[in-house]
Structure formats: C-alpha cells, structure tokens
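Morning run. Coffee first, then this:
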Amino acid sequence: MISMPPSERDLHAYVDHQLDDADRRLVKTYLENHPEAAAQVRAWQQDAQQLRAALSGALQQPVNQELDPALIRQRLKHQSHRHLASAAVLLIAVSVGGLSGWQAREMTLPDAPPPMTDAMQAYRLIAQQGILPADYKVNADGDMQGWLDRYFTRANRLPDLSGAGFKPVSGRLLSTEQGPAAMVVYEDQGGHKISFYVRPPGPKNYLLPRGSRSDGELQAEYWSGSGYNYAMVSPSDTPAAQMLKQTAQF
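And here it is:
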C-alpha cells in the first residue's frame, strides 16, 4: 500500500492505471481534498486523451510540441529545466534539415533525410545519452504492451526479442508534426539496448517498404504496417544488429 501524501511516481501510476483498487481509492480521496494536485493529474489525463484522439483522426491539425505529456510533467515540476527538455524533443522533430514532411520530400527531393532519421535521433537522446527520461518503466507487474496500446491501439504488437535475451524495460512518448510517436527500449542482461520506434506515416500517408540503413554508429531496420511506420534501432556491428537484420518479421 502506498503512503500519503502520494509521490509523483504514485500520481503517474494513478494516471496510467497501474495502482490496485485499494491504492487507487486512497489517491482519489487525497485528490478530492487537494485541488492543486488534482488539477495536475487532470492535465496529465487530458494529455493522454489528446494523444488517443490524434491517433483516431479526431485531431487534424499538426501536433503541438508542448502537448508531449512528459514535457508537461517536467514543466510542472522543473520549470528551470523547461527549455532543455523542449529543445531535446524539438531536436528529434527537426533534425537533419527538419523532420516536418520528410516522407513527402523523400519522393521529390534527392537530398531529403533518409527514412526514420527521427528514430535514430530518439535512440541517441534516450537510449544512449539519457537526455529524455522514460514516461513508463516496467516493474514486476508492468505491462509495456498495455502502456503502448493506450496510445497506439491499431499499431503492430511489440516484437518479441526474448529469444535473443532482450526485454522491454521503458517507454517514452514523443511528438512529431504528423502526430504522436513512441519509443520502447529493450535491454539484455549485459545492458545492451535496442529500440522499437512507431510513428504516423506523415504527409500523403507515405508508408515505408521494408529496408535497412546505417547512420554513424547506429543501424535501423524499418517497415510499415497497420497504418504506421516502424523502426528497430541498435548499435551497428553487434550481435543484436545482426539478429535484427536476419529477422524476417517483427
């Protein structure tokens, strides 16, 4: 049973429906008597609803970077670090000449950014450098697929990499101009990391054929399905990278 007052982690668990019934009732009672905390929780819940609405097509306008749930949480708690977090997410969205509309330009311009550039940038910022913290971490009772399904109900299932010793350990929601994106980090017992990245197809609903490419020290295997583009990213020249290349289907 959680203690009172609930920690920020407890409040996030309440929003993500990770508490048991008894703890959920405790937090609900606490929020009824603490309007400021209740307002903060409502803001987080609204963020999740907006993401789901965007994925269902209810929001046709470009996604506002400021609606990234994790950015809002950081802004509420760490006002002094707001600009760093916003710049990090913006870097993902506009890297290599601007992510906006890269799929459309790829069909018309020879120097357009290669496929899934944002997936590789996200890997560097989250899995390698740790600039952006996770929105969700798997614990003993955690369910990474359940967390992802709350925002990407029609997307492909998470790849099962347990045969290679990799398990999903954390997830991060991101924002692109075409809609919400997410990255799930897999890790093995040796601390090696692989990421699964899912994002909307972008302008003209451009879906990717199955492909593979390298960028510096990273390798990406990418494909499309169920209306989304996907990428598995890992360091190049590693057993994990070879395993991903040889995987016919994810």
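Residues 35-55 form the longest helix (21 residues). Good start to the day.
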